[in-house]
Design goal:
The protein is α+β, with helices and mostly antiparallel strands. Among the domains are: about 35 residues, no CATH class; about 45 residues. It is about 30% helix and about 15% strand. It has a 3-stranded antiparallel sheet, with no helix packed on it. Strands 6-9-10 form a 3-stranded antiparallel sheet. Strands 2-3 form a two-stranded antiparallel sheet. A hairpin with a 6-residue loop joins strand 7 and strand 8. Helix 2 crosses helix 3. The chain is elongated. The N and C termini lie far apart (about 110 Å). The structure holds zinc ion (2 copies). The site of one zinc ion (ZN) has 7 residues, from strand 10.
Amino acid sequence: MAKPIPFNRRWLQNQQARAEAAADPTAAATPVVREQAQQLQAIICAALNVLEPDDEAFDPMALVRAYLQEPPREADPVLYARFESQCPGCGEPIRVGDPIVRHQQWGRYVHAHCRNRQQRAAVAYTIVARYPGICRHCGQPVHPGERITQVRGLGWIHEACAQQRQRDS
Ligand SMILES: [Zn+2]
Ligand SMILES: [Zn+2]
């Protein structure tokens, strides 16, 4: 006759502990987030090679709280220009790396310091061409690196062609 399978004692104890925890409302009082926060704190402490957050000057728990909180939603995040353009606000060039922000009313990127301008610059919008194209004023190719101006109805044309149109009109 086969030996009866012995109960796994540890398993049984675990089951009992779980049942007791479920029955005891105070046992479930520790939220999961707190556990994650403690784990995160341990990771941060280890990474920064600090022992315990007793140091008043440095509080890893503040980092943990900041990490677990929703980041504040910023309406107009400041970006950094990745290519050259012209600021519709002041008309001055926007150079690569300049802080820029989308203007609330115009929906166009302007210098960060031009975000509150109410009036657009009167100057023509001129940039350096990044891609080859065709000028719809003179019909000649637009080469990358040439200065081009945006003209209503024609799109991007040579800056010189735009200036000539202005003189002719
Ligand atoms: Zn500007
Ligand atoms: Zn042209």
